[in-house]
Amino acid sequence: MSLKENIDMVKEELNSEEKFFENAVKTERFVKKYKNMLIGAVTGVVIIVTAMALYSSNQDAKIEAANRAFSALQKDSTNKQAAAELEQVNPALFDVWQLSNAITSKDAPALKKLSKSKTVAVSDMASYELAALNSDVKLLENYAYQQNAIYKDLALVESAVLLIEKNEVEAAHQKLQGVTSNSPMYDLSRMLLHYGAK
Known about the structure:
The structure is a single chain. With 198 residues, the chain is mostly helical. It is built from 10 helices and no strands. The chain is elongated and about 120 Å long.
């Protein structure tokens, strides 16, 4: 190697070291300038990650407790401690369990109470079951005309059957006309429409 090449190589090394130190100084200035913000951001990330882990752990514990209580109630429906625990950790599942028991035992007062449940599906089913249990055409009609009623068409068919039993065929036909064509009850409603037809 020639002397000139050696000098050029030394210059390049010095330039690269100079750039490295220059970048280090810039980084140090940046860190000093934004030190509090950087510490705050890191602390924020740590807090968020910790909070998410605690929340997830808490949710898992609630699910486990609800599953234990529900299993205990499946084995012994009179277990008041399990019922109280389920009601506390998962009120919606507790309402579903109560609805199941009320339907099985045909418990009208329990169904009436559950018809006011905050769990929309439970309140809807309880309203329908209460109307069906009482064989009440007016309640079935009120239920059927609620917005988003799950058993709307079934309620219409059931109220029509009750009206046919009372020999109110024309009113029954009007109810059956309300059954939608995409409903599983549609074919049954069409067959019932022929009852009493002149």
